[in-house]
Design brief:
The protein is an all-alpha fold. The chain has one domain. Helix content is 63%, strand content 0%. The relative contact order is 0.21.
Amino acid sequence: MVLLDQRIREGIIDYFEWVGDYQLQRKYQADVPHVNVPNEAINQWEDWIRGERFDTYVEPVFSRQEQIAIREFHRIWDAVADEMPEGYSRLEDLIGTALWERLRKAAEQARNIFTLRGHFDRNVIQFADQD
């Protein structure tokens, strides 16, 4: 399970990186113009976090600070998702709004917590005596 958890952690970091940066959001939109990036930002989080089963994100892969960051981001994500306009707006219409800035800033703050320990290998277990 440790290797799977490491891969999930890397996916979460990737998510925080692009959601927490307007330039990367715009790049994503330019690279995949048929995709609604705001929709992706809301729905991709659920690819990594299943409901509110936070007890599955545990040490040693997820530090205590990272566990708290996930919970805090999820709280903000949930509020933003509830307030999103019906059908989701275009990215450029959302950038700069208080709603979208709240999500971006929360992702940036969570990314900063995950950056403290950095990336883990997606294919090699990082922790001795695990699995």
